[in-house]
Structures are given as structure tokens and as C-alpha cells.
Amino acid sequence: MPELPEVESLAEFLRERAVGRTIAAVEISAFHALKTFNPPVGALGGLTVTSVSRHGKFIDLDCDGLHFVTHLARAGWLRWREDLSGAKPVRPGGKNPLAVRVRLAPDESGLAPGFDLTEAGTQKRLAVYVVKNPDEVPGVASLGPDPLVAEFTPEALAEILRASRTQIKGLLRDQKVIAGIGNAYSDEVLHVAKMSPFKISATFTDAQVADLHEAIVGTLRDAVERARGLAAKDLKAEKKSGLRVHGRTGEKCEVCGDTIREVSFADSSLQYCPTCQTGGKPLADRRLSKLLK
To answer: Any idea where the Formamidopyrimidine-DNA glycosylase catalytic domain is (predicted)?
Structure first.
């Protein structure tokens, strides 16, 4: 799933290539992805992309005051096309991964660039909205603070933690609490902070809050810098190469050499290092426990 660093890089990628360009057409292949109908998606045709911004994991193209907002969900991606002039119009209901195509007007060289929003797998959750204000998108309106803004201080994080009795892993993934962190970077943050993913949020000391804040901001900023300037097609590989524990079950921790372990859930899993994070004790994996009975 694209998280804050990848989405920020995609937004920057589009700022460099789409701002100042006119939208020629927006073609919908997967109608389930389109979540709004007024204004119609056709209203974007002829408008100019004036800015591109990020709200948590949402990408927002401001087109002369009308906003094209997308959330890539778990298996979505943005694929830039240098020239779509020869591409046939998108047909609704196709079986390929293509969900939405945005065509831009030709440039001086005659090339007509644009981008495709694609989604792999059977769980179709990619979403597109056409709105007059991004706050009309429910997921945007309910977002918690962005961890890379100046207002996200250790004191602000302490207030968030004190108000919750949930496990820290779940809190970090909750977009209504902190915007932009998902399953992968929550694992990475907790490994850097040397904290158990099962630690209860309200139990953090002031020193632990400071350590967690530093881990959140540092991990995300480092990931953003690694992704900066990369083509959209290269971001997935960059993300995977930079992860230290997430997705690395059975490998050695690069910090201490212990074996990275996993806890599985119904539709996701987390990875952690016992030595770095849980005092050497493996966490209970309920799904594995059931298999052993």
C-alpha cells in the first residue's frame, strides 16, 4: 500500500509534469472507483491543473478550483504515460487493472502525456472523487494531523497518546489519529523507537513520547528523501529496499542480528525484532496458536 512517503513523491512527480497542463479528458474504466457524480467527471475537461497536494494518503489535483482527488488504497498505483495520443479510448468494465485514465492536452512537441490509475487484485478499493473542496471527501475531512508539519510536536503526540487505550501499532495506522502512516511504516517506526507494537498508547512516559516522535518524523522524512526525484515506476522498489523489518520475516535484524518475527491477523500482519523491541520475548501470534492446537 502506498503510504505518506510514496504518495508525497507521486504528488511531487505530478507537480513537475502536470501543473500548468490542460486536462483533455478523464476516462473511467472501473465505475466503482468513482465515488462522486456531481460535479460530473466530464467537468474536468478543458481545465488547467494549477497545483498538486497531498492529504494523508490522498493525492489532490486542483484544476481551476475543481479538485480531482484519489486514494490508491492497498493495491492501487499511478502510472505516468509520456504519450497517450495513440491510445484507444478506455472502455468501461474492462478486465485489466486500469481503473481511470487522465489525458492531458498535447505539448509543443505534439506528445499528449497523462497517467493511469491502476489496481491489482480482487479487492477493488481505489477511489476517485471530483469535488469543489477536498474536505468534501469523507476520508480527507476526518484526517488526523500530518506528522511532517511543524504543528506535530512531541507535546501534540503526547496528547494523542494520553487519549487512547489502544495498542500503539493500531493507533499509528489510524488515519483519523495521525495521517499517512500505514502498516509498513508503523512497523519501521516502532523498530526505530525500540517499542513493542502491543504497547498501550496511554502508558508512554515523556521520554518514550519523545523517542516515538523522533522515530515517526525521522523515518518518514528519510523515506521521503529516498523517494525524491524517482520516477513513479521506481517508487515501489525503493520503498521495499528501505524497509528494515516490515516484510522481512525470517531475516536477520540489521541492528542486532536477531531473527525478525511476524504476528498475523485476518487481513494483515506485522513484523518486529524481539531483541530490539520486546526484550527478547516473541509476541503471541493468535493465528499460529490456533494452527498448533
So the answer is: 2-93
Give me the sheet containing 66-71, strands edge to edge: 49-55, 58-63, 66-71, 127-131
Longest dimension (CA), the chain: 68
Q: What is the mean pLDDT of residues 275-283?
A: 96
Residue 152: alpha-carbon gap to chain centroid: 19
- Sketch the domain layout of the chain as residue ranges: 4-141, 154-292
Mean pLDDT of 7-24: 96
Q: Residue 292 has what pLDDT? A: 32
Residue recorded with cell 498538486: 52
Q: Which CATH architecture has domain 4-141?
A: Alpha-Beta Barrel (3.20)
Percent of the chain scoring above 90 in pLDDT: 82
CATH tag for 154-292 (out of 1.10.8.50, 2.120.10.30, 1.10.10.10, 3.30.390.10): 1.10.8.50
Smallest CA-to-CA distance from 263 within 249, 281, 242 is with 249
Q: Give the separation between CA 280 and CA 260, rounded to whole angstroms.
A: 11
Give percent of the chain with pLDDT exceeding 70.
97
